[in-house]
Amino acid sequence: DERSFSALPSYAQPDYDVQQEVLVEGKANSRAAILNRPSSLNALTASMAARLNRLYESWEDNSDIGFVIMKGASDAAFCSGTDVIELNRLLSEGKAQECKVFFASLYKFVYVLGTYLKPHVAILDGVAMGGGAGISLPGMFRLVTDRTVFSVPEVQIGFHPDLGASYYLSRLPGYLGEYLALTGDKLNGAEMLACNLATHYSIKEKLPWIEERLGNLRTDDPAVIGSSLSQYGSLVYPENTSVLHKIQTIDEIFGCDTVEEIVEALEYKAGDSADKWFASVLDKIKEASPLSLKVTLQSIREGRFQTLDQCLTREYSTSLKFISKQVSDDFCEGVRARLVDKDFAPKWNPSSLEGVTDDMIGYFFSPIDGDEPSLDLPVSIREPDV
Known about the structure:
The chain is of the alpha/beta class. The protein has helices at 3-6, 15-21, 46-61, 84-92, 96-114, 131-134, 165-168, 176-183, 189-194, 207-216, 222-231, 247-254, 259-272, 277-287, 290-303, 308-324, 330-340, 358-365, and strands spanning 22-26, 30-35, 67-72, 77-79, 120-124, 127-129, 141-145, 149-151, 187-188, 200-202. Helices cover 47% and strands 11% of the residues. The chain is globular. It starts with a helix and ends in a 21-residue tail after the last helix. InterPro entries: ClpP/crotonase-like_dom_sf, ECH_dom, HIBYL-CoA-H.
């Protein structure tokens, strides 16, 4: 099918390179997709998203394949998310259309994964950030290790947690999702297991045994796959210092209606309490884009009452609005400050929470303009598992 290639952006490398970016490992009754861009912590490109879509759809149709695995090729990372440096470069060259194709491809993949007919095992060893979580968490099994680091740091680069984040973050205990999204704070593997972001936990050293065991399985039975993952699993609990032990405090503060009220509650606590945690959380929020903070809070609040496809459709529209620069250039400015020039001094616009008007927020949640293609998810043929 040559048409699927013509839909790829023009910067996509020759097919050989694309195949190197997502490797395939075939076993008796399963296939593994291996994200393979170790130099950039397996950050996702447009060509990788298109290849994942093609592979997953062909594997789903293949009756010889019982289940599918996804993992990262490098020791350091599962996936550090979307390649925002690449997106930023395309935008600076006036290639917004290629960015839109990229987003559409990634969002479609998250929906395919969230409605996948076969059991799916994501092995989240190392960094699993932002979009890296998006392309793995909607699947059936999520195996984490003692080296897993999860975060959704998008507000720090003037963007919003996307690729289904408003769906899975809003379903975490209490207001933990709001806390993670507004602070970009990290969770380790034990914490991910405790709050149900992960289904299984194992120490890194046992991964080869788990992978060998999975490789020998001839089944499409989730119960068999689940018990194989449990076989080498470890019983772990979050450490005493874990933020999960502060869930009552988090609910009290991050359950507030607005970002301003959250900041006010933190400021009050920081002044009133000997606990340094409040001040450090406040610092993280104050580093972020005020616009991103407000859009992100509303996104998660809406996500609580939406299905996966509704969350993806809305987030896709919001992502296009961030890169359109109609309201603000915060995305490009954030990428510049944190990842390109690394001066860590972004000039946010608006520069304060007070400067972010209701009209600005409304724009990010309004329908896509008529001439923009909306996200076309195959909802009629893929029923989401509600």
